[in-house]
Amino acid sequence: MDRAVKKNNQALLDKLVAHFGITRFTKDGGYILPDGRLLDLQRSDMDKRQYHRAIAALLPQEMHGACDEITIVNLMAATGVIRYESRGRVHVAAEPTQTQRRKLFDIMKYSVHPYRVIASDANGATIGDQMFQSPQAHELLHFFNHCFSGPQRQYREDEFCVMQEHNDYVLVFRPENRIVGCYFVNSTTYTMEPGFDAVLTLFKNKLAKIEIRYPSIT
Predict the structure, then answer these.
(1) Alpha carbon distance 31, 39 (integer Å)
(2) Which of 94, 201, 207 is nearest to 155 (CA)?
(3) pLDDT tens profile 153-211
């Protein structure tokens, strides 16, 4: 990572810590920082609890996406923070540090609640989604390795759809209603938006299931 980018990301984390503070209580936290500390969102206090939109409001404009959910994914992908809810949900968008994995294990191993762990890529597309009940440390490690270091990422088909546009076909990323790929019928070539090259296989598989209409030659 570029040194300036890394410095800016650390400054952003420092800003969030200065605003919300740190807690040692799992029930009050909402994010796990790269060093394993918990950002204090006061989640156990109904009168004071902070929601994820409060985080989004503090982020620079260039991080804002089509909705707060995408904005938070942009934060997680850039800084490595992990979003979690103590009653059973974890969301990551970058490979966790060893310290973060250890903290997650501590949070999940004695919980009476099962945990749904969702992994996203830097664009917010889901690349992993699994339920865990009091997992072993190696199970979490295997899940994260498969998502972020595996030979080929597995994307959710329901997050993408193919639409016909004039004589060609486009791939739409549904969470942002954004065109991320195009298949040009005449030249039988594909173009993909930056960051979405790994979705090309899914695009081809979806096209294979529909009857492509080729323009007639007059």
Answers:
(1) 5
(2) 201
(3) 889 999 999 999 988 999 999 998 999 999 999 999 999 999 999 999 999 999 998 87
Where b means 16+ CB within 10 Å and e means fewer, 23-62 reads beebebbbbbbbebbbbbbbbeeeeeebebeebbeebeee
- Summarize pLDDT for 31-49 with one digit per residue, the tens: 999 999 999 999 888 888 8
Q: What's the CA gap between 99 and 157, in Å, rounded?
A: 32
Instruction: Identify the three-state secondary structure at position 24.
Output: coil
Q: Where are the domains of the chain?
A: 3-149, 157-208
Beta bridge partners of 189: 184
Which residue, chain included where needed, has tokens 């919300």?
20
